Amino acid sequence: MPYALRSSSKALIAGLMANYQHIVVLTGAGLSAESGLSTFRDKGGIWSKYDYRDVATPEGFARDPGLVLDFYNQRRSAHANVRPNGAHAALARLEHEHAGDVVVVTQNIDALHEAAGAQNLIHMHGELMKALCARCGARHAWVEDIALDTRCPACGKTGSMRPDVVWFGEMPYHMQRIAEHLSAADLFVSIGTSGNVYPAAAFVAEARLNGAHTVELNLEPSEGASLFAEKIHGPATQVVPAYVERLLSG
Ligand SMILES: [Zn+2]
Q1: Distance (Å) from CA 234 to ligand 1 centroid
Q2: The pTM is what?
Q3: Which residues, 6 or more positions from 211, have their beta carbon under 8 angstroms from its beta carbon?
């Protein structure tokens, strides 16, 4: 095997695997990296080329909305060329074949979970392929560029359209629903997240408090790795399908 499998947990015992009733999966940029989407925080990632304060904060948008729209227009057009990878497919398979509930909470703004067939999905940081009207609050599926004079299909006004993504300093979406899922979870799996982005980094602690088994699947140990009962490290397209296979085969 080209990657190391490590586990600190006795929960590898196969008999414990089959009975999870409520699985919560948190996914981050590491899941989509092998689809060719740049990660944000890694060396060479997007935040090494752009200052997030310029392109991913409300203040940056107020200062230079054209720059911010252009940044997301580039991301949106690049998205047309990417496809879900084996890790997205494995998670969709888990959702459809596991007897208990499976919900995916993603930090990713791409649409690769949906493209792989996921249905029970929460986009906590919004969606690249949607536009939000800051004036009337309407959300629209969006594949074209957004310009300064783009008209809102709902209220008809121009000058208020922005990508429907959560910027630094803004409240992530659906936090109440996520908290409810975490309080019901008996298995919490974090995949491809750097472990230092709150509030997502706190989810593992919340799940543990509620008695869930906790698993990190990541390319390398994350900053929050010590919080997880079980750790499996390697490329997402290898470790995620293997882990899903274990869950489904009990
Ligand atoms: Zn509007």
Answers
A1: 44
A2: 0.89
A3: 186
